[in-house]
Design brief:
There is one protein chain. This protein is mainly alpha-helical. It has one domain: Up-down Bundle (Growth Hormone, Chain: A), CATH 1.20.1250.20.
């Protein structure tokens, strides 16, 4: 058994006492992402029935909807412990998808319901993960996050492989509405793993139970909004995500337009197939790549690696604006984001206070993200429907955005490493770990 644990450590850098809680977090992420990726191809297949201007309008509505949802979340976070709040959120979204399943076949003209479904799934996609990573940041320490978050992110990738497999092979058989019900049931399955982590089922001889998970954030509901703009570190993270969103939006609109000539079922199958390939590659890379990149290259180079890749890809796409290259770049961008950029980005939040992790993080992950969607969607509609720019010209604009994204990622990584170096210098000797013993215990919080 000890040899197995050592083999796991050599692959994932997980220490023995961390393996059970990390596996629980892995499986929780798997269920959450499987639920979303069952719904994602259904949602995106609907979008090809709408014009760029219609979709841009929906993205503007998303921003206001997301702001309202996060405001309500801020009220709840001020009064409830996160260990209670996280399961309640997942039960709430599960019930909402079950209601969409109930009402979808009952309407003669389902267009408004479909647009409502599109908006709601999009809000869920971000709040779902934001709450999950906030939850984990109260379970694991900063040092653990560098080693465990990439492995846990692989769980999200495993769920993202499982999720689109269902619409890919069964959407034509079971119908799109039943996928909503299946996603609702899958979401419920994440809760037992959350309860396991909450109870602190770790080796008591090697680790201490978490403490932040039992705290109430307190304060006002708008504190998360104000912290984003008053804290320079959080503002940099928000800007980093905003540039990612701009690049993502440009790619999304181009993909939507390419698939317009296919039927909705065909689009669902194609998008499910793309999701499956992306997440299979992500699953492979996330196990061992990201933690080692951060260890040997540093956070700055890790955060800027995918932006640099996208800068080069956009230049290639500008020179050769072909559909095959566009889809290949889309796959590369998503694999890089899920396996490298996303887990590295989540580590940045271990440097902020508990209240900022609980309140400001969802503001960045949802409101800032959806605000970026609204602005970038309007810009794309103007460039395509208004001015009439083609793929090559838009790719040049995207390359400039990627260059800014890479620069900010490098800056943010240096700021993170500087903060860590200050903390290490101030650490008391009695609290430092024996670096020669990878199997020494490390407390969890």
């Amino acid at each position: 058994m000890n040899s197995i644990k050592k083999n796991i450590y050599s692959l994932t850098l997980m220490r023995p006492h961390e393996q059970k809680p990390a596996l629980a977090a892995f499986l929780m992420a798997l269920m959450l992402m499987a639920s979303y990726f069952i719904l994602r191809p259904v949602r995106d297949a609907m979008a090809s029935d709408w014009s760029d201007s219609e979709l841009s309008m929906l993205w503007n509505i998303q921003f206001f909807l997301a702001t309202g949802v996060i405001a309500l979340y801020g009220v709840a976070a001020s009064r409830m412990k996160l260990k209670h709040l996280a399961p309640i959120i997942y039960v709430f979204f599960s019930a909402s998808f079950a209601l969409f399943y109930v009402f979808s076949p009952r309407l003669e003209d389902p267009v408004l319901l479909e647009k409502g479904f599109y908006l709601w799934v999009t809000v869920f996609s971000l709040l779902n993960l934001s709450v999950f990573w906030s939850f984990l940041s109260t379970i694991f320490t900063k040092s653990q996050s560098k080693r465990l978050f990439p492995f846990i992110s692989a769980g999200a990738s495993a769920g993202a492989i499982l999720g689109p497999t269902i619409p890919l092979f069964f959407s034509a058989i079971i119908g799109l509405d039943k996928l909503m019900l299946l996603a609702a049931l899958t979401l419920i399955l994440a809760i037992p793993f959350a309860l396991y982590l909450i109870q602190g089922n770790n080796n008591s001889e090697e680790s201490t139970p978490p403490t932040d998970i039992n705290r109430v954030a307190g304060g006002t509901w708008w504190k998360g909004f104000s912290d984003v703009f008053s804290n320079r570190y959080l503002l940099y993270i928000a800007a980093f995500i905003l540039l990612y969103v701009f690049l993502n939006s440009f790619m999304y609109f181009q993909q939507k337009n390419i698939l317009a000539e296919f039927s909705r079922v065909q689009r669902t199958q194609i998008l499910g197939g793309i999701d499956w390939v992306v997440n299979l590659l992500t699953f492979v890379f996330a196990f061992a790549l990201t933690s080692r990149m951060i260890k040997y290259l540093g956070m700055g180079r890790t955060l800027s690696s995918i932006p640099v890749l996208m800068f080069l890809s956009m230049l290639l796409l500008a020179l050769a604006p072909w559909v095959t290259i566009l889809l290949a770049v889309q796959v590369a961008r998503r694999v890089g984001n899920y396996s490298i950029t996303r887990p590295a980005r989540e580590m940045l939040f271990t440097e902020v206070s508990y209240e900022e992790r609980i309140k400001a993080k969802p503001v960045i992950d949802v409101v800032i993200y959806r605000g970026g969607d609204a602005v970038s969607g309007s810009i794309f509609a103007l460039l395509s429907d208004g001015i009439g720019l083609g793929l090559a010209a838009i790719s040049c604009i995207a390359a400039a955005i990627a260059a800014c994204w890479a620069t900010l990622g490098s800056m943010l990584g240096r700021l993170y490493e500087h903060t860590n170096s200050i903390e290490k210098n101030n650490l008391e000797p009695s609290h430092s770990l024996d670096q020669n013993s990878p199997f020494q215990s490390e407390p969890q919080r």
